[in-house]
């Protein structure tokens, strides 16, 4: 094995799994949380419709509501819980209860005791700072939680939130705090189509403030947005390189039921990527991506009951196995085509 393959634990890209094992000496599992937030794209501040692809669960359909697990697999349990939560938001409980429920799903699975509390649903810095402090500290105080990852928007990071994050970083030096920002695309026309609601200068401003506060950032991108060519997606990856984030999520576009994107899809306004086309684009995106950036996701899998298309993406194991074997056959790896300027 080469030094790179060893560092990346045999994978052709620097996965979150490899990062955690290299950095913390153990694997970390995520517990997805719904902290009962909303979002300026939904509460009328910017819009009431949400991003065109966003589900009723605020892109947090894997959050873990409280309940007794009795299904055969962990994935099934999380999916079942997500569907329940989407139907009945009152079934969700406090962050503390959700963490306990999330941990109980792993009990007896010999996965160790290192978990990331992932504030996933909606915009997780969009609330009074006192409430944010309560929910973040509930997670950070838990002995099995090694850090928190907060999904939010760059236009929802006012100075009081930045101060809170900096203070928590000082108060919990042995734990990490990551921020996840939904870039999705660098192209203005696509950003307008998906109703993202902020421009690139807003994102770069948030990135520089987070960098100054020494808070690692994970950028989310979507591959396969309607109207985007492969070249457009490669430009987004080059933009990500320029931002120098800690991590990136390369998420396949999912069409979820009951979204405006689903209406567009059903009337034939666009087609989703085939698995072959997606893998070709994804592999080149990885080749273009800086080898320093940790890859937190390379496909994503929508909740089974909510995903309208592409259905091939539901077999995540097959997608990942095919990706890895194809990259091996092509001798492709993350950063192979990366040009640092
Ligand atoms: S910003 Fe996030 S939570 Fe808000 S509508 Fe868009 S995807 Fe959904």
Secondary-structure map with pairings?
Blueprint: H1 3-7, H2 16-24, E1 29-33, H3 74-87, H4 95-106, E2 115-119, H5 129-140, E3 145-152, H6 159-171, E4 176-184, H7 188-194, H8 200-212, E5 217-223, H9 230-243, E6 247-252, E7 255-256, H10 260-266, H11 275-288, E8 294-297, E9 307-309, H12 316-330
Parallel strand pairs: 1-2, 2-3, 3-4, 4-5, 5-6, 6-8
Antiparallel strand pairs: 7-9
Helix pairs in contact: 5-6, 9-11
The chain binds iron/sulfur cluster.
Helix content: 25-40%
Structural domain count: 1
User: How many beta-strand segments?
Assistant: 9
Structural Rg: 19 Å
Which fold name corresponds to the CATH topology?
A: pyruvate-formate lyase- activating enzyme
What CATH architecture do you see?
Alpha-Beta Horseshoe
What fraction strand?
5-15%
What do these coordinates show?
The chain is of the alpha/beta class and 341 residues long. The chain has a single domain (15-254), classed as pyruvate-formate lyase- activating enzyme. The protein is built from 12 helices and 9 strands. Strand 2 (115-119), helix 5 (129-140) and strand 3 form a beta-alpha-beta unit. The chain is globular, with a radius of gyration of 19 Å. The chain starts with a helix and ends in an 11-residue tail after the last helix. The structure holds iron/sulfur cluster.
């Amino acid at each position: 094995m080469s030094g790179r393959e060893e560092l990346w634990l045999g994978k052709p890209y620097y996965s979150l799994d490899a990062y955690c094992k290299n950095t913390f000496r153990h694997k970390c599992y995520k517990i997805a949380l719904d902290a009962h937030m909303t979002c300026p794209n939904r509460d009328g501040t910017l819009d009431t419709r949400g991003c065109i692809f966003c589900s009723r669960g605020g892109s947090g359909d894997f959050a873990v509501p409280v309940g007794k697990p009795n299904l055969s697999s962990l994935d099934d349990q999380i999916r079942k819980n997500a569907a329940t939560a989407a139907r009945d938001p009152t079934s969700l409980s406090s962050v503390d209860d959700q963490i306990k429920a999330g941990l109980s799903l792993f009990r007896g699975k010999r996965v160790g005791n290192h978990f990331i509390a992932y504030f996933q649903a909606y915009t997780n810095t969009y609330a009074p700072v006192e409430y944010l402090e309560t929910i973040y500290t509930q997670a950070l105080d838990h002995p099995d939680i090694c850090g928190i990852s907060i999904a939010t928007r760059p236009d929802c990071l006012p100075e009081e939130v930045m101060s809170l994050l900096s203070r928590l970083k000082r108060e919990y030096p042995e734990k990490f705090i990551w921020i996840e920002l939904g870039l999705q695309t660098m192209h203005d026309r696509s950003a307008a189509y998906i109703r993202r609601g902020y421009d690139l200068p807003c994102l770069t401003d948030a990135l520089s403030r987070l960098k100054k506060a020494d808070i690692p950032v994970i950028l989310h991108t979507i591959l396969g947005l309607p109207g985007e060519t492969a070249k457009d997606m490669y430009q987004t990856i080059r933009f990500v390189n320029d931002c120098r984030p800690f991590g990136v999520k390369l998420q396949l576009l999912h069409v979820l039921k009951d979204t405006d994107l689903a209406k567009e899809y059903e009337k034939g306004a666009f087609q989703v990527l085939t698995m072959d086309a997606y893998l070709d684009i994804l592999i080149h995106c990885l080749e273009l991506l800086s080898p320093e950036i940790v890859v937190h996701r390379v496909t994503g899998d929508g909740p089974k009951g909510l995903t309208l298309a592409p259905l091939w993406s539901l077999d995540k194991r097959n997608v990942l196995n095919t990706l890895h074997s194809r990259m091996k056959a092509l001798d492709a790896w993350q950063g192979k085509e990366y040009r640092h300027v």
